[in-house]
Design goal:
Oligomer: single chain
Strand content: 15-25%
Number of strands: 9
CATH class: Alpha Beta
CATH architecture: 3-Layer(aba) Sandwich
Shape: globular
Radius of gyration: 20 Å
CATH topology: Rossmann fold
């Protein structure tokens, strides 16, 4: 009788497992990395190398930063090129991009890396003013060109954006910025993918660009699985690539893509 009960419990567990994980489901392979404002995709290099060694097919978006609509369109264009289920990862302003573009049918999960995650009708500029960062309190740190493109003061870039990177690297990045149109930060979102898709969030504990409390609030609202990296700057994806890649890998391996038909 005892053996029969054990057998029945075992078969019931197998039946439950078969309803949760489709027998013909394949592990998720595609990952798209989206950078934030003022930088470019080259900053993902160390994370990219770790993820590719883990067997993932990794693509990196180079958004133009000319308008929020242009950046979302660029993200969707790259997502169209993916050959199946994809994990979408965004850093900083890239979080707004993946929130809007993440409704794409290829996207099955989101990872926010020290990122914004607004809701429909919200924009990151207004939300940032409600929970100001060190950047927001530093007068003159954000410069604006006559044609309304922004950049971070190169002198202040190392201490605000990348204080935990080697000084030479931070200074190089300060002189290779991608200028971002002012409107990219204040355009309200029309979609919020985190409402319908699983998400993960990384809080950079010493972030000077986005207040870590705002990051926590975003992730709590989205019901994201959250990881805090103490002492990390806004450049957490560069200064702590192993920890960031570990979160991305965990997310990718915990998502069960739709069964192959």
């Amino acid at each position: 009788m005892k053996h029969l009960k054990a057998y029945l419990a075992f078969t019931a567990a197998l039946a439950l497992l078969s309803t949760v994980v489709p027998a013909n489901a394949e592990p998720l392979k595609n990952i798209v990395l989206v950078h934030g404002a003022w930088v470019d995709a080259s900053g993902w290099k160390s994370v990219y190398e770790i993820l590719t060694k883990e067997g993932f097919r990794v693509s990196m978006l180079q958004e133009p930063e000319t308008s929020f609509a242009d950046d979302v369109t660029a993200a969707k264009r790259l997502l169209d090129l993916q050959d199946g289920p994809t994990l979408l990862v965004g850093h900083s302003y890239g979080g707004s991009i993946i929130t809007e573009a993440g409704v794409h049918p290829n996207v099955v999960g989101l990872v926010y890396v020290a990122a914004h995650a607004p809701d429909v009708g919200e924009d990151e500029s207004a939300l940032g003013k409600k929970t100001p960062s060190v950047l927001g309190k530093t007068e003159g740190a954000i410069k604006v060109t006559p044609d309304k493109f922004t950049y971070l003061d190169p002198v202040q870039f190392p201490k605000l954006f990348a204080p935990d990177l080697p000084r030479e690297q931070a200074e190089f990045e300060s002189r290779s910025q991608v200028l971002a149109a002012t409107q990219v930060f204040s355009t309200p979102l029309t979609a919020a993918a985190w409402k319908t898709k699983p998400s993960w969030g990384i809080v950079a504990g010493n972030d000077q660009i986005i207040n870590p409390d705002l990051e926590r609030w975003y992730y709590e609202r989205a019901k994201s699985q959250t990881t805090v990296i103490p002492g990390a700057s806004h450049s957490v994806y560069e200064s702590h690539p192993k920890e960031v890649a570990a979160v991305i890998t965990r997310a990718a391996r915990n998502i069960v893509p739709p069964a192959t038909r």
